[in-house]
Hints:
The protein is an alpha+beta fold. The protein has helices at about 5-10, 90-100, 130, 140-150, 165-170, 200-205, 220-225, 265-280, 305-320, 365-390; strands at about 15, 35-40, 65, 75-80, 85-90, 100-110, 115-125, 135, 150-160, 175-180, 185-195, 210, 235-240, 245, 255-260, 285-295, 325, 340, 345-350, 355-360. The chain is built from 10 helices and 20 strands. The chain has a 7-stranded mixed beta sheet. The chain has a 6-stranded antiparallel beta sheet with strand order 2-6-7-9-11-10, sandwiched between helices. A 3-stranded antiparallel beta sheet has the order 4-5-12, with no helix packed on it.
Amino acid sequence: MTVKKILKPFLTGLVCMALFTGCATDNKQKESEPQESSASGADGKDTAAEGSVSDVDANAAPDTYKAAELFIPSQETYENPDMGLSFTLPEKLREQMDLQTVAMLSDAQGADDNKSFAYFQFTWNVLTKEQKNAEIKSKGNGFNEWADGLKRIGAIGVYHSDQLSNLDKVTKCTDHKELGKSEDGVYTYYLSTDPKADKELAELISQIQSEITKMTPPEQLYENENMAGQSLGAFTMKDIKDIPYSEKLFQDHALTMVNVFTTWCTPCINEIPDLEKLHQDMADMGVNIVGIVLDARDEAGDVSSEAVQKAELLAQRTKASYPFLIPDEGFLNGRLKGIEAVPETFFVDKNGTIVGNVYSGSHSYDDWKTIIEDTMKTMKTEAGGEKEAVR
């Protein structure tokens, strides 16, 4: 799990992540002003959100999801090499997480320069029965409103030097133990607790063991996100109906929207009806839409028949007519291997070249329509500039 894969959802809104389990949603653009948010992700193997397809009726995706789908599941050790942080939880804290009396979440905020982050942290929060069983609206600010009502008992994270004077506010804790600094001294790691919230649970948080290693420079991670101008190259993929596709699928369209999703991701499912409407409404503009079912092929390279069956059901219930592709063994010449947060969407021109920005998180019909129109305008402007340069 790289920093890029963790920063992406938190700086842009709520998405699903492959390190943890659960899903959430938001309508934030990756390149837009960073928003403070929290989310947890899923790998689809042991997630509470697995089977979300069953919640989709014949006409629409689900309007809500359970708060419990957002909780990071308990495990002994969590590793984040690129952030230079790994930590181990005490057994009794893991027991409380398993009982869902304590919710482990995470959140981050980008820096003002949009090239680094202000902080990234994991948090532990006391849950009431009502909070645990809460139903959260899939669109809007429902998650943040729910999370704001939780009682924070502890946090572990890495914080930019600009944030140290706001540590109480950022962590919602009162006691802070410095764990170490990044190699360049710009970031400091802290383990924070609030004994006043719950003395016994705060004591468990204080027992977390951590290790600080070398952090990947944030600016390097952000540079890795810029994929515009890269060619997807030649490939062959089949869709869930066993129909073969190649790079030629881009040739008949001015712009193709590639939406990478999984069958267990609530926000992915939520936006498919809107994507289908876009597919119908913008076809005359030369816009095409293609879905890629990321969990239809596992890390070993084998096709998951279960995920394919779920995708088939999902296509039927959302009435999606655009193709749902199964990743090939090369994962689209490696383009899909770096995706650990879904949904992720990027755009491709008729030559098979990635254009515009990469987007994490689900978006509304209106938001996507604006993004597509802006991307096409940019393409025309750049094309005009190239012609002028040739003259």
